[in-house]
Design goal:
The protein is an alpha/beta fold and 284 residues long. The protein has one domain. The chain is built from 14 helices and six strands. Helix 13 links the parallel strand 5 and strand 6.
Length: 284
């Protein structure tokens, strides 16, 4: 089975928070024995690199774990690229391209130079990584606008319902999912083809599309209806949820994110925390 760990869980493994060194060693052994297949994503690497500026030692420890636990061979694509590829493939009736790709040589070589703690490489890569993240975030912002628009529309509707029953999440998801799909497909430039040739059911049953729509709808509901506090890390959580859609099991130490993802209909992976994973593997 394929397992996706977000960086909350990976940081717990590095910092031994809620897990012992023996349990970490046995988890590594389970991977080497083929009991689990952890899948690395571009988001894992990008978030580790972001910590280099203010948390160098922790970031390097996390990169060492990534290199040892996953290897530096393959990774899930950046989120905007994954969604764009799948929307285009669906629109033109092509087989979905794989979610993962060979890790670009430049990324692998730069990570390896960071692991050697080459000072010039660290300074150069921090600067280059910041520029790359800015470009990726610009593309990701186009997709986030759909979430923000849906949130505003839902909040307006809820304002007029304060004296009646609040909608269930299932009702909310059915209400906002079509608008979110349209916004994403339109951003990619294939909404007309998706609408006329594919249909909403098939779009939402596609793991990447269904997870991004479902996780966004669930996050909106948690904030507007359940009173969850909006956080600057929410967009990153959305990215991790999308990455997890390519796997069977999503491992996260964030209880709020587990709540958001677990109720996504149709395609949600199994969502567990580290403790539950260790128990399931017979390690704890």
């Amino acid at each position: 089975m394929d397992f996706y760990f977000d960086n909350n869980a990976l940081n717990d493994l590095v910092g031994l928070r809620g897990v012992s060194s023996d349990e970490v060693d046995r988890l590594r052994a389970a991977k080497k024995d083929g009991a689990i297949t952890p899948v690395l994503s571009f988001v894992n690497i990008d978030e580790a690199l972001a910590a280099l500026v203010n948390h160098r030692a922790r970031a390097l420890d996390l990169l060492r774990l990534i290199a040892d636990f996953y290897g530096l061979d393959r990774m899930i694509k950046p989120p905007d690229q994954l969604l764009t590829h799948h929307f285009v493939d669906l629109a033109f009736g092509d087989p979905l391209r794989p979610a993962d790709v060979q890790m670009p040589t430049a990324i692998r070589e730069n990570v390896e130079s960071l692991l050697r703690e080459d000072e010039r490489a660290i300074a150069r890569f921090v600067e280059a990584a910041a520029a790359a993240r800015d470009q990726i975030n610009e593309q990701w912002d186009g997709l986030k606008r759909a979430r923000d628009q849906a949130r505003a529309e839902l909040a307006s509707r809820l304002e007029g319902m304060r004296h009646g029953p609040m909608p269930t999440f299932a009702q909310h998801w059915r209400d906002v999912a079509p608008a979110l799909v349209e916004a994403y497909a339109d951003h990619v430039g294939v909404w007309r083809l998706c609408r006329d040739e594919i249909g909403m059911d098939k779009l939402l049953a596609t793991q990447s599309v269904g997870m991004m729509v479902g996780a966004n709808a669930s996050m909106i509901y948690a904030i507007v209806v359940e009173g969850r506090r909006a956080d600057r890390g929410d967009p990153r959580d959305q990215q991790h949820a999308l990455m997890a859609s390519a796997c069977d099991v999503f491992v996260t130490s964030d209880a709020g994110l587990r709540h958001v993802v677990q109720r996504v209909p149709l395609i949600a992976p199994t969502v567990v925390d580290l403790g539950e994973l260790l128990i399931a593997l017979g390690i704890r």
